[in-house]
Amino acid sequence: MYDEEIGVDAAAAPQRTTLPATAAETSPDNPWPLALLSRNLKSYLDRAPAAWVEGQVIELNRRANASYITLRDVDAEVSLSLTVWSTVMNRLELPLERGARVVACIKPDFWMKTGRLSMQTRDIRPVGLGDLLARIERLRQALAAEGLFDDSRKLPLPLLPGRIGLITGRNSDAMKDVMRNAALRWPAVAFEVREVAVQGVSAVAEVSRALAELDAMAEVDVIVIARGGGSLEDLLPFSNEDLIRAVSAASTPVVSAIGHEADRPLLDYVADLRASTPTDAAKRVVPDVGEELQRIGHARAQMRRILDVMVGRERERLQHIRSRPVLASPHVTIQARADDIERLRGRATTAMTAEIRRDADRINHLRAQVRALSPQKTLDRGYAVVQLADGSVVRQADAVPGEAELRIRVAEGEFGAVARGN
Question: Which residue range or ranges hold the Exonuclease VII large subunit C-terminal domain (predicted)?
Fold first, then answer.
C-alpha cells in the first residue's frame, strides 16, 4: 500500500515498526533509510503516465545507442533533457536537427542506484508546417466563435494621434520603416517605442508586457505592433493565444503590421486595424500633411464659392425688393392711405350728421305729439280742472260733498270756489 505524500511502500520497506509512515513524519531522530526513499520515488514515478509535450530542440548529442536532447518550451524559458534510444530515432524519416520543433511522448524514469531522474522518450515526431497551420486554424476558429474577431469589438483609430506606441524588434527595419514613413507624412508625429524580441521563446512575454505598458499610458492614442517578414515559425508568437487575448482586452486601438501581404498571423484578426506591411501601418495611422493641407485648401475654396453664390443671390433678392413701388416711392402709398382716411372721415361725418338730423326731427315730432296730448293744451282750449282740497280731481258731481272747497285750474292760473248743493 502506498501513501500519496511519498509514504512508505509496505511491501518494499524493511519491517521496522519505528519507521515513520509518511515522509512528512520523518525527523532527524527518526529518518527514513535512503533506499526506502529511492524505492518510494521510483514506485511513484513508475505509476506516472506518459505525456506528449511540445518544444524546440536546442541541443542534440548523438551516441551509438541513444541520443540526448535538450528540449525548450516554445513560449517560456523552460528546458528539459530527454533520452531517446536509437530504436526511436531510427523511426524518423529525416534526421533530427537543432532548432526543429517536435512533439515527444515522454515518461519519467528514476535510477535508484545513482538517484538519477531521466526522461525516457517513447516516441518523437517533428512538427511540420501543415501541423502548425492546422493548429493555428483550430485556434482561429475557437477564438472567432468567442467573438474576439467581431467588427463590433474593434476600436476606431484617431484622426491624428498625439503619440503613437510602437512595439517592434530591437533596431529593426520595421521600426525604421514605421518611424520614417510616419515622419514623412506628418513631421510632428511622436512615438513611444518599446523594443522587444519579436521571435523566439521570450517574444510573447515581452510583446505582452510592452502592450500593457503602452495601453496604460493616457498620452498614447494608438499602438502599432510591427515586424518584418519571416517564416511561419518566426511568426508563431503572433498567433499565441495569450497575446491574442491581451490585444483583445486592450483599451487603446491596436494596429497589426506583421510580415508582408501574404502573412496572416492571428494578431491580424484581433487587431483593430490590419496593415499589410510596417510601411502601410505608418500610412494608415497618421494622415499626410500635404494631402490634409490640400483638402483644407479645397474646402476653403468651396466654402468661398458657396458664400459668393449665396451673397450674390441675396443681393439680387434685395435689389428686387428695393425695386418694388412700395419701397421705390413709399410716400405714394402713405398718401393713398391718407386719402382713404380722409374720404372715410367725410363719409362718417356725413352719415353722422344725417342721422342726427333724422333723430332731431323724430324728437320734434314726438315733442309735438306729447304737447298735443298734454293737459295744458286741453286747458288752453277753455277746459278747467276741478280739484278737491286734498288735490284729487273731480270727475263726477256726486263725488263733491256740500259746501266743499274746490280749486279750479284754468289755462292760466287757478282760483278757489265753494260747492253748493243741487
Answer: 148-343
In the numeric block, which cell numbers belong to residue 19? 519507521
Contacts of 332 (CB under 8 A, 6+ apart): 325
Mean pLDDT across 284-300: 90
Closest residue by Cα to residue 282 from 155, 166, 151, 162: 166
| CA neighbor of 208 nearest in space, from 246, 182, 264 | 246
Phi, psi for 149 (deg, rounded to 5): -105, 5
pLDDT digits 0-9 by tens, 230-272? 777 778 889 999 999 999 999 999 999 987 656 689 999 999 9
- Specify which residues 193 forms β-bridges with: 166
- The DSSP bridge partners found for residue 226 are 257
Task: Give dist(CA 402, CA 417) in Å, integer.
Answer: 12
Q: Which of 57-61, 175-179, 317-321, 411-415 has the lowest mean pLDDT?
A: 411-415
Question: Do 199 and 237 meet the contact criterion of CB atoms below 8 Å apart?
Answer: yes
Is residue 16's pLDDT more than 60? no
Give the pairing type, strands 222-227 and 254-258.
parallel
Question: Over 50: is that where the pLDDT of 167 sits?
Answer: yes
| pTM score | 0.57
Whether the predicted pLDDT of 378 surpasses 80? no
Q: What SS3 state is found at 392?
A: coil
CB 37 within 8 A of CB 75: no
Farthest CA pair distance, the chain: 194
> Does residue 160 contact residue 186 with C-beta atoms inside 8 Å?
yes
3-state SS string for 57-117: EEEEEECCCEEEEEEECCCCCCEEEEEEEHHHHCCCCCCCCCCCEEEEEEEEEEECCCCEE
Closest listed residue to residue 226, CA positions, set 139, 160, 164: 164
The residue type found at 8 is: V
Nearest to 72 by CA among 52, 51, 89, 58: 58
Q: Which residue has the cell 497618421?
A: 286
pLDDT for residue 163 is more than 80 = yes
Pairing of strands 222-227, 164-169: parallel
Comparing CA positions, the residue from 138, 160, 169 lying closest to residue 266 is 138
* Grid coordinates given for 126: 517533428
| pLDDT computed for residue 6 by the predictor | 43
Q: Which residues contact 183 (CB under 8 A, 6 or more apart)?
A: 189
